[in-house]
Give the backbone structure.
Amino acid sequence: MGFQPLFASALTFAFEKATIEGKMTISALVLVSMISWSVMISKARQIFTA
């Protein structure tokens, strides 16, 4: 048993036991995180190509 299956099962367990408010919060955090990472990556590309 490696790190990956344990981590995946822990995330699955946490999401299954979360309330609807918790699931909405997690979803919002994931969405905002993806947006912020896309901005950081695009800005890094702009800096390196300049």
Observations:
- The longest helix spans residues 20-49.
- The helical segments are 3-17, 20-49.
